[in-house]
Input
Amino acid sequence: MTKDKDELYGTRMTGSDRAMRFINPYRTVGELNQIEQWKLERHPLEIADAIIDRYSVEGPAAIATVPGEVERLKWAGIYPQKQGGDNFMMRVKVPGGFLTAPQIREIGVVADAFGEGPDGSESRVFGSRYADLTTRQSIQIHWLRIEDIPRIWRRFAAVGVSTVQACGDSARNVLCCPVSGIDADEAFNALPVAQAVSAFFGGNREYANLPRKFKISITGCTEDCAQAEINDIGLWPARSADGELGFNVLAGGGLSDGERMASDLDIFVRPDQAVELCRAIAQTFGELGNRENRGLARMRYLVQELGPEGFRSALADRAAFDLVPAGTDLTRRYRGDHVGVHPQKQPGLVYVGCSVPVGRMSGLELVEVARLAETYGDGTVRLSTDQNFTLTGVPEDRLDALLGEELLAKYSPFPGPFSRGVVACTGSEFCRFAIVETKERAVKWARFLDEQLAGEPVGAAPRPGERSGVREDAGVVRMHFSGCSASCAQPQIADIGFRGEIAKVGTHLEEAVDIGMGGSLGAGSGFIDWIEHARPVNTVPNALLRVVRRYQSERGETEPFYNWARRVPDDELRRTLAAEGVGLEEPVDEPPVRLVAVAPATKSPVKKAAAKKAPAKKSPSRKAAAKKAPAKKSPVKKAAAKKAPAKKSPATKSPSKKAAAKKAPATRKRVR
Amino acid sequence: MRRPAGPGTSESERKMANDEELTTLRAEIDERSAAFETSAAGSVIAWAVERFGSGLAVACSFQDAVLVDLVVAADPGIEIIFLDTGAHFPETLGYVETIRARYDLNLTVTTPVEGAGDWPCGTERCCEFRKVQPLKQALAGKAAWITGLKRVDAPTRATTPIAAYDDAWGLVKINPLATWTDLDIAGYEDDHGIPRHPLLAQGYLSIGCAPTTRPVAEGEDPRSGRWADTGKVECGLHVA
Output
């Protein structure tokens, strides 16, 4: 493969050809899981050439003839859709969520030109030819055909956009505060650091075979909007003992089906050391991480196993600089979104955060976003982890004209508190793992609650439609809807989290959700308690309405929903969800979403699995989280405190328990 | 008895009145179309000019000039629309100028909508922005249009009527050459001494935009050179 051609497609490999040292002296090939063996048989990054030279010409059937090839597709940023055949999803990496107008225009054009599904696949809510803004500040495009992929790469390469390693066992999109460089309160602008780390890992052959996905978050803002605690590496701002600005290092956070808050490694990292630090952590993970059991392969299990001190010492052996203590953390709080109009640190300029419920926009709308960025702003667009976009560098005297644009009526900077906070994963529409449909449903639920409570202040936030220059987001109720337990929509950090489930109602199986409440990051970080198990989806909106009504009547003046939910006992929350007709005029539930009829006598594994989990678990984790003092402690103490809720929560198991759970034959999430 | 649609009538009453008018128009055109199956193209065009007057325009791809020759004979000042996609062969643009000068045409040349250049060649939206939308603008306010569609062009065109009310466009669409074959075209050109598109001699038997058109081998389907190697056969102008 010539270099020129790779540049043309943006798939050039960098780094050394040598393999990581995980085979010898640590383990032998025979101990590796199947995917690890495939990765050794042929380097997964070589899939890009195979797509360009072979599969785009021969078609999707050829992919299946090569062992491990479907797995390798991920390294090119491509997943087969649930529908199979010639239907692929492509994930576009957007380091730090930062895009130029030509880049977002090109992504929109590709979604519009190549992302049309077959007849009948149009959504009543979203139409067709759309793209999804994701919780990793990336963009996903559906319904692509393999023959179009090289052409799409050429177009992306021309504007500097890459899909390489957007998926697979390697460094994923690097997160950063979406208002880096313009936020008046940031400690420093860390976007260049995030971009440098992204550039180091992108296409880097040597570091592209890690035991599992590898998520990095880097921010210089003081509001944790890059979600440091739930990434494999979280660099957030700190001031060293010498008064120098840099980062402190968190490691081993994550959600999926064994959530864990990251451990504080108490290491000060200067911005110019960040690439080396991340490289050394990747090396530590690559050499020592679990390559036998995919369920225990994420770095959080290694951090848990070694302990923060043990992990730090393994890292010290591999880093090219001496590890020194972090000094003082500068993170003040958790900020869940940037929706609204906010002043920038540059006088006379504002940024406008636009709410995209569940992140789905048409390709043409993305093209329009590019036009707005060029017409009114500084020609850039920022994506955030709450699946929204922000237009930056808007002169104050251009603001009214921008707010008058049609697109901002739909993706409003002043949405209702539920539409503003709603996040959803891909769901059963495209995903092979999801149990229920998520995106349409989440949007409907959010709209329902906004309509039912229209005009009433739900929390302390301004009323819908009211313009406020403040950055206050206390009245937002964040609902995160994941179609299965993999947590792509991050339900554990939401005010109200949903997880796709199946309920048996009478003689039928129906789409259902587990409902949890009380999650947040930042100073009061804690995961949700799962309150109710497998509530049929048609009864959820009214159940939520009952809970929100109660929150309205009981909340403190500026008390966020998660805080209220933490202080109300789980049993009471459960009763409020369940209590029908509590004297309120409630809209009638929609009909249930039935899947299949179950013959009463059969002992199908589905039925058993559904029945087994019947009683909702009561978790003590909320108490643990509530107990945590919001005041900052010394890094070492904080590290201990951070671990506390994880240990107590039944949802977070120690690696050994986790291993046992994985070996159990009937796992809940494989129902169906 | 039909009530006039005007102030004081409700939205639904107006709609009903429109529906009635449309039903009448449809019946008239369908009847004509059936009768025209064996008529000469010239008489179809003469009827259209008579029936629609200045509400009539001709959309011409300038792959040949037979349609131009016929319509100008019926109405020398008739409006002829050429869709400049911004991606035509230079030979096509030269040919348009040759024909325009020869007949002193009342020619309207459309341009692509702004931003069309961002879309990849050969995709549906590209055609929409370079052909469909500009033509819609050019036909705004018209009642009918004449095209050069032939049933032999493609399987998608095998049942093309001589005339029909086209719901997608809200216009009567008249296809006087529907029953013609490629031989008929060549014969007419010879008989009337009409200049040919220069690329015809190089094997381009159906001519669209330069990046998506290739010549076809002898005996090959003439239209197979359009959007070759893709499933695409129509640009969107002629989708029923």
In short: The radius of gyration of chain B is 19 Å. Strands of chain B lie at 56-59, 79-83, 106-110, 144-146, 163-166, 171-174. The CA atoms of residues 42 and 84 of chain B lie 27 Å apart. Chain B has one domain: 12-202.
